[in-house]
Amino acid sequence: MPLLPLFIVAFIQRLTINFREIQKNPPPLCYAEPEDPSKNMFHWIGWIDGPNDTPYAGGQFRLTIDFPPEFPFKPPTIRFITPIFHPNISTKGEICLDILHSQWSPALTVRALLISLCSMLTDPNPEHGLNRDALKLYREDQKIYNETAREWTEKYAMKNGN
Question: How many domains does the chain have?
């Protein structure tokens, strides 16, 4: 069996620690795990249950989390797979969240990222957005925004069409 470079070993150890933290103390309303830990620790799947008192309540939103080789010095790439109508999430699932970009810190854990994503569903950032239609409605007509977000949740994120 070939020896792995030291940085790869450290990288895998860091991801394993993150995974164990989530298993031991899962954040409310969300979870993530390696899709196939025996073969690939770099690609994770996750999901967020829509928070109560939001148009996303009752929905379950799937995510992919891909870790670059430079992790934890560079943030993972996280995308929503389940379509969601949200000002800070593009129609392609890209996320506008400071801690995934300019405010990234190697001290952040996957658990902390999941909690931030849940918070973003509860409190969108009206200053920045990736979905212009959702951002415009969120700023100008909260009632229509909530109705549209709810329709998308029912269409794409709810089991059995509930």
Answer: 1
